[in-house]
Amino acid sequence: DGGITQSPKYLFRKEGQNVTLSCEQNLNHDAMYWYRQDPGQGLRLIYYSQIVNDFQKGDIAEGYSVSREKKESFPLTVTSAQKNPTAFYLCASSIITYSNQPQHFGDGTRLSIL
Amino acid sequence: GNSVTQMEGPVTLSEEAFLTINCTYTATGYPSLFWYVQYPGEGLQLLLKATKADDKGSNKGFEATYRKETTSFHLEKGSVQVSDSAVYFCALSTGNTPLVFGKGTRLSVIA
């Protein structure tokens, strides 16, 4: 079955440490996205990518970095510069970023601070 | 800019009650509108969508009609079940931009 796989499901970060969240899709989608979800805040866009080797900042990119070396992969690094990283992180993909195409979501990674 | 406003939750209903979750939007251009559902500990799943005025999206007994004149896309279901307990997100997209989400409405259905 096609879908989006996020790993790990739970992740713990120590102070000053960078951590990387994995997102892989086998849907042959061009566009991929990272969102952060906090209680009562809905989803906020961190980064998105429309094609390989290209990505754009979303609303809350500070303290995060991404890469898009392969169509099927869009890893997110939470750097030590992100002072409040505890949240639920969701990866999504879509055929292209046209308005009538829905996004497909992974099951998320919950990041906590040790 | 684009934005979505949903009614504040949580919403608590008895089984078989009628559900309405209000959603209004502000958009430049002509948006497509979506409802997503999130069950505990999971990602979001597309529930339904509408891409032009007066379109009605429907799925699993849920419906929403794209009302351009009132810039609304309210979610309704005639008879909710315990299994409908989840968080519901209204979202929009215009042109080639990513989805913009509302803050979500938590629904709890009690037997």
Q: Which stretches of chain B of 5+ consecutive residues score pLDDT under 50?
A: none
Largest contact between chains: A-B, 27 and 25 residues
β-strand number of chain A: 11
Proportion of residues in extended strands of chain B = over 45%
Count of helical regions of chain B: 0
Instruction: Give the overall silhouette of chain B.
Output: globular
* Shape summary of chain A: globular
How many runs of DSSP E, i.e. beta strands of chain B? 12
Biggest sheet architecture of chain A? 7 strands, mixed
Radius of gyration of chain B using CA atoms only? 13 Å
Strand content of chain A: over 45%
The amount of helix of chain B comes to: under 10%
Secondary-structure element pattern of chain B, one letter each: EEEEEEEEEEEE
Poorly predicted runs of chain A are: none
The Cα radius of gyration of chain A reads: 13 Å
Multimeric organization: heterodimer
Calculate the terminal CA-CA distance of chain A, rounded to whole Å: 35 Å
Helices and strands, with pairings:
The complex is a heterodimer of chains A (114) and B (111).
Chain A: E1 4-7, E2 10-13, E3 19-25, E4 31-38, E5 42-51, E6 54-57, E7 64-66, E8 76-78, E9 87-94, E10 104-105, E11 109-113
Parallel strand pairs in A: 2-11
Antiparallel strand pairs in A: 1-3, 3-8, 4-5, 4-9, 5-6, 7-8, 9-10, 9-11
Chain B: E1 3-6, E2 11-14, E3 19-21, E4 23-26, E5 32-38, E6 44-50, E7 56-59, E8 62-65, E9 75-77, E10 86-93, E11 100-101, E12 105-110
Parallel strand pairs in B: 2-12
Antiparallel strand pairs in B: 1-4, 3-9, 5-6, 5-10, 7-8, 8-9, 10-11, 10-12
Structure description:
The complex is a heterodimer of chains A (114) and B (111). Chain A is an all-beta fold and 114 residues long. Helix content of chain A is 0%, strand content 51%. In chain A, strands 2, 4, 5, 6, 9, 10 and 11 form a seven-stranded mixed beta sheet that branches. Chain A has a four-stranded antiparallel beta sheet with strand order 1-3-8-7, with no helix packed on it. The mean pLDDT of chain A is 92. Chain B is mostly beta strands and 111 residues long. Chain B has no helices and twelve strands. Chain B has strands at residues 3-6, 11-14, 19-21, 23-26, 32-38, 44-50, 56-59, 62-65, 75-77, 86-93, 100-101, 105-110. Chain B is globular, with a radius of gyration of 13 Å. Chain B starts with a strand and ends with a strand. The mean pLDDT of chain B is 94. At the A-B interface, strand 5 and strand 10 of A face strand 5 and strand 6 of B.
